[in-house]
Amino acid sequence: MSIMKKRILITGGAGFIGSHLCERLLKDGNEVICIDNFYTGRKANIVHLLNNPYFEIERHDICFPIYMEVDEIYNLACPASPIHYQFDPVQTIKTAVHGAINMLGLAKRLKIKILQASTSEVYGDPVVHPQPESYWGNVNPVGIRSCYDEGKRCAETLFFDYHRQHNLKIKVARIFNTYGPKMHPNDGRVVSNFIVQSLKGEDITVFGDGNQTRSFCYIDDLLNGLTRLMNSPDDFTGPVNLGNPVEFTILELAQKVIELTRTKSKIILNPLPDDDPRQRQPDITLARKALGWEPVVRLEEGLKKTIEYFESLFKKY
Ligand code: NAD
Ligand code: UDP
Ligand code: UDP
User: Fold this and answer.
1) Phi and psi dihedrals of 124, rounded to 5?
2) Where are any strands of DSSP class E within the chain?
3) What angle in degrees, to the nearest 10, is found between the helix axes of 190-200 and 250-261?
4) 29: Cβ below 6 Å to ligand 2?
5) pLDDT tens digit string along 197-209?
6) Enclosing H/E stretch for 17
7) How far is the CA of 12 from the centre of ligand 1 (A)?
8) Which is the closest atom of ligand 3 to the Cα of 193?
9) CA 233/CA 43 separation, integer angstroms
10) Can you give the pTM of this predicted structure?
11) What are the pLDDT digits (tens) for 184-232?
């Protein structure tokens, strides 16, 4: 290992994925600078890192320019759960687009590598299944999910234009539904919702008939994918799907959570939100080939760890 530590900037570093990435990159011997405006992120996610002299946190909104000297950027800042990104849709699209421009400008000035946390939402409600990177997607440009979906699509365009126009070294990861400890208990995402509802003995709210599908990736697997992508050869830009190809219906997920928490909670059916994708499964052929990566944590194993986290969180408060 080099004796020079890399200084790595993580935007959105106080969020769910970002805080895990801060830990991982510090453990790997790097210096980490985290930028976050704490819109959905929490101090609690990173408080244990504050005593580490190689860790810094700056409260900042990436919609505004920022000047600093770093060696690499992971751009993760953006609310990610439908409840949060729909709360202030204009702020969401500003973060996705203005935020990307500022981080690309920073990377361009410093001539450094920058990785974008894109999303499976760029495929919208996909008509190709499973989704390969070559699929252009089926996205509503004017719906309630558009601030996020179109914001992330525009960010991908910006990354590739900075790459072509300014020779910037870019990496674009299309992240599929990821779960694990440190998810926000109220962010309304399906895994955290079902676990929280089960632990509190509340009804488990399945939207629609529960036959829509998702493929759930455990956080540790995702971190391996993101760091492999960042360290891949410069000519590999992606976009590359990072997700677990094992697909479940939402009803199957609810039943698994009920079984693992041994809750008495009952499933109730609530209306399906607008534009909710019916199916989602990553084709990870490219990630396997280019990064030698595939997820190894089974849903049951990952759910157990996530349930333990929420149990300990509720004991604390
Ligand atoms: P999260 O909401 O937990 O984290 C996002 C972080 O960004 C938060 O700490 C938030 O405070 C911060 N943030 C938001 N707007 C900001 C701004 N303008 N300036 C500075 N900080 C800002 O979400 P997450 O699940 O950790 O997602 C991280 C990234 O990964 C997001 O870009 C998201 O789109 C992407 N992603 C996540 C998933 C998933 O399943 N979790 C799937 C696909 C893509
Ligand atoms: N930027 C930044 N930090 C930097 C360099 C640039 O925040 O270290 C911002 C800058 O304010 C600009 C954006 O990134 O709005 C895009 O920069 P770029 O150089 O591509 O565009 P220009 O400054 O020419 O508009
Ligand atoms: N969902 C659900 N009950 C909930 C929360 C979500 O049935 O309490 C469904 C939602 O309609 C969607 C799936 O679970 O079909 C995944 O939702 P999430 O918000 O986690 O992620 P996304 O829709 O962005 O994939």
Assistant:
1) 60, -135
2) 7-11, 31-36, 55-59, 72-75, 113-119, 170-175, 178-179, 204-207, 213-215, 217-218, 240-242, 247-249, 267-270
3) 40
4) no
5) 999 999 999 999 9
6) helix 16-27
7) 6
8) 8
9) 34
10) 0.97
11) 999 899 999 999 999 999 999 999 999 999 999 999 999 999 999 999 9
